[in-house]
Amino acid sequence: METLILSGVSKNYGKHIALQNVSLEIEFGMFGLLGPNGAGKTTLMRILTTLLSASSGEIRFGNLNWNEPHKIRNIIGYLPQKFYLYKQIKVREALQHIAKLKGIQSNNDKAVDSVIEKVNLSDQRDKKIGKLSGGMVRRLGIAQAILGDPKIIVVDEPTAGLDPEERIRFRRLLRQLGRETIVIISTHIVEDIEATCDKAAILHKGQLIKSGDIHTLGKIAQGKVWEVSVSEDDFHSMYEKCNVISSHRTDNIYRLRILSEEPPMNAGLFSPSLVTPSLEDAYLYLMNKKG
Amino acid sequence: MKGRLNLIFDWKAMGVNAYIPFIVVLVLISYSKMKQDALTHIIPALELTFPVFAAWWSIFLFQDVVEEPGSETLFSYPIKRWKLGLARVGFFFIIYIILMLIMLFIIDQWLVTEEILLPLAIQLGTQSFFFAGVGFLSMVLFLKSGWALVILVVYTSTQVLTRGTLIPIVNIFIFNQGVLPISDLWGPALFSVLMGTIFWALAHMLFLKIRHFV
Ligand SMILES: Nc1ncnc2c1ncn2[C@@H]1O[C@H](COP(=O)(O)OP(=O)(O)O)[C@@H](O)[C@H]1O
Ligand SMILES: [Mg+2]
């Protein structure tokens, strides 16, 4: 199984540096790229899909190199952050057209029907794209990306604009794809990654801060995440004094998750306890540190 | 894999916009019928209307390719960019010329007595070539069909209102009220083709380089 290798990839838009010396190895399965808005995720996705060329650095996959973009386009499937084309056209017809644009020669119709089934749009195949719901359009987006069985699938902000139910469905679909190919998603939503990816990297201001297994990424915040239980009165003052990540209420007791280098002031009913950090904790910790 | 075009699909994807040039032709034929034989009316009506609409398909062919959310996806497919650009504009321009020949043939046969087919085909055909290039270029420059249409309207209305004196260097209208002898047509026809070629070439080169995505 080939590995996608990025070495020292940089990109500037004029004077603005959008990506700085990004090196990564991405293996078979789901890979998540996590970062706040403006981190350079979309820029990296567009470089991977050959829409933009890197200002410097190299990208390779097996014996393919990104300096020959026409070859790369045969092995890439891409779903950008927004995808809403051909509103006048019916689902199946649009996909048949895209199959032609992609140059799928044999069994065009069969390939189209199989992706329609995969993304669960069989009931909508004769509906105009303009009439689909947001979640369906997103699934159609995946259908066009996976047409032609690309080896690398790139999905930018997979769940943007979806309601909670559609999100869960869409994540399930992504996870299925990750069993067959390399799937790279970029997102600012930690949950997207926790729910779908085995490995991830955190990008901030164009720089790669950390990458690895999502369980090991959590360890970055080891010893910095605390849990305290407080009464309603203390709840508000704790919120002001500490860096509270989340809170849960049971009866009149609030359980707070706090990010802190030192144990938080013992205002609670019980003394604060260290907890095993999640990816979200680690992400927030890194973003806090970087400002 | 090598991507292929599907021009019937492109036609459908334009929706109602695909039909506008046909409506224009129907209107022009009806107008010519109304003005039976009055070439002083018919020729200006044809010249100021028909070539401009050659830009129509050039513009709307690119709505899905540059303007709609996610149109960048098309550039990630293994189809060559010139096929998505120049090839499609060229094909639809040929259809437009065929449409023009049909229109002129009908007018020539049944609505006027003078021989108009060849001279008007040369005049309107070359002017249409110019406008197809204007549409292609303004779409590639502004990436918005709305702006491309504004350019078209501003160009045409200023040229027509000032009778081509505002920016004479890019005026391609002849403002003739009768059929010109072929020998008088070569000059203006060549000029339209020259300007048109510049626009087509520029649009083609810029299209290959589009790096700005919505
Ligand atoms: N075409 C462009 N021209 C100039 N700057 C750009 C362009 N595209 C993105 N940027 C800038 O590059 C940075 C990274 O953007 P982007 O890759 O879209 O980040 P993300 O997807 O993580 O939000 C941002 O500061 C953005 O303003
Ligand atoms: Mg983005």
From TrEMBL, chain B:
Keywords assigned by UniProt, alphabetized: Membrane, Transmembrane, Transmembrane helix
Claim: Transmembrane helix is one of the keywords in the record: yes
TM region(s), chain numbering: 12-32, 38-63, 84-107, 127-154, 166-183, 189-208
Record-given protein name: Uncharacterized protein
